[in-house]
Write a structure and sequence with these properties.
Number of domains: 3
Order of helices and strands: HHHEEEEHEHEHEEEEHEEEEEEEEEEEEE
Radius of gyration: 22 Å
Bound molecules: ligand MTE, molybdenum atom
Distance between the termini: 61 Å
Oligomer: single chain
CATH superfamily of the largest domain: Oxidoreductase, molybdopterin-binding domain
Number of strands: 23
Number of helices: 7
Strand content: 25-35%
CATH class of the largest domain: Alpha Beta
Structural class: alpha+beta
CATH architecture of the largest domain: Alpha-Beta Complex
Strand order of the largest sheet: 4-3-14-7-10
Amino acid sequence: MPLDLSDESQYDRARLRQWARGRARSAGVDRRDLLRLFAAGAAAGSLGLGAAGSAEAAAQGAAAAPGPGTAAAVAPPGIVKPLPPELFTVRGTNAETNFASLRGTGPLTPVDRFFVRNHTSTPRIEASGWRLNVWGDALAGGPVEFSYDRLRSLPAVERTLFVECAGNGRSFYSSQQGQQVTGTAWTLGAIGVARWRGARLSDVLRRAGVTRAAVDVLPRGLDDEVVTNGVNLGRVRRPLPVSKALDDVILAYEMNGEPLPPDHGGPVRVIVPSWIGISSVKWVGDIEVSAEPLYTPWNTDLYRFFGPGQPPQGSAPLTRQTLKSAFELEAGATLPVHRTRLLTGRSWSGAAPVHRVEVSTDGGARWQRARLHDAPRRGGWVRWSLPWTPRATGPAALLARATDATGRTQPATAVHNTQGYLFDAVVRHPVTVV
Ligand SMILES: Nc1nc2c(c(=O)[nH]1)N[C@H]1C(S)=C(S)[C@@H](COP(=O)(O)O)O[C@H]1N2
Ligand SMILES: [Mo]
């Protein structure tokens, strides 16, 4: 009998079963916990393990109630750097960059305003004691250990790349499209662009003796295990196909010319160019190189599309980021009438360089081409600007839409998925002209 996707408990149990199968090899979750999850899912028709996504939602403010100050009353997040309210909106254990604070900054996001997405809290790890253990059945020999100094002695690469959460823009599914989603209620500030310096993952894997049998590569973080609804999901880890791992992935130890700061994965993190943020595992401590496909909660129940039109086990695991644009302006900003204001913002795409950005100041009736201030590059963003002289007082909506070199333009509506990933629609930015 085909699964009835409109039946929430069937739908979630299907997801749980899939996760349970895959979990055997790598997740290390206790069997009693799994049984408890199945029971909870069946009894309540609730999200069950889907709650992995929604523990986030519970702790970090429901997606239906985004906006500054949402999380003001909850315990301070386990983030080391200061989070002044001009620069960040705290959402549970995470901190979102206020896009307005990027106005006037260069192409790189300064570390003092780079968003932080932590499943638990930032650990403090000394470079001198740090080790990377590379192991698994697709190595020619046994495990191989890399110290910080050994990693730094490998040929270094430097690239300017964004890290963006797959859920960036999630709150607009509800505020702009009236749809329910679970997860952190980000606006557009769960992205930052930095200059990353590090060793190539491919160099490390080759030195560790990776064989042709390798299929998946699984980096794992040293931060605390993630416990959601009483179930321990283990440490943050998401498999990469070996093809990507050997292509352009970096083990980064510097960010914008400084040693990698604690909140961003110091001493060493993975950087997976153009892919969703969860791929870029922070505080990496070990990497399994496997001859069989690996499954963890982060490539089964989480970070796939679920919902109508998707198979019961969800889409294929999400990989590349999508296309977005944001104004460097507070939502609800007040602008004086008849005064020229330089509207500025940024656009980016995981698929190809952004080469055109258009702006509308009348809610989408007419569009004007914005001036680009950076050479379009894949994996980065372009800054843009357009002068605007409002001629009438009252509320207005500013819109920006980008087109990338694949020819794709941001649509008017994003395709809904229950966890609110990869929002790509044009965002209406409200302002008031006075
Ligand atoms: N070990 C570990 N790695 C992690 C995470 C985490 O909580 N723990 N969060 C992931 C997610 S969901 C995102 S979006 C990015 C955020 O990177 P940043 O905090 O440096 O901005 O890190 C990813 N890597
Ligand atoms: Mo993320």
